[in-house]
Sequence to fold (136 residues):
Amino acid sequence: MKLRAENAEDIAVIGGYLQDAALKVSDLAWLPAANRFALVCNRFMWERPGPPHYRTRAGLHFETVSVAKVRGVPQQSKDHVLELLTIHAVEQQGRALITLSFAGGADIRLEAELVEAGMDDLGEPWETLHRPVHQD
Fold:
């Protein structure tokens, strides 16, 4: 799967595909000199009905990012696992505010000139026994 985002609606689509992605803190990268924020995760493949269920490695990057703020992410605990719940974007007054929300209340807020992002699957899927479950 390869997706590109150029507006808030596109970000919502990517967020749907990345819902329940698992990643370690060490899989996050803020590259201020390149105005880029990127991550690599294990994406649950919601588009493949199961059982069996599958995950695949996926990369996500945001361009034109000038500010990255982290709340509730234990940045010193590189092996700490985060579960991505959703990605939300708001475009206003010539900038984009993008929020990655994680289970447990952690989030990452990005400020960018505009919405410019991409998600790419990076390898072959593998079977997983566990399907994410959400309480109503």
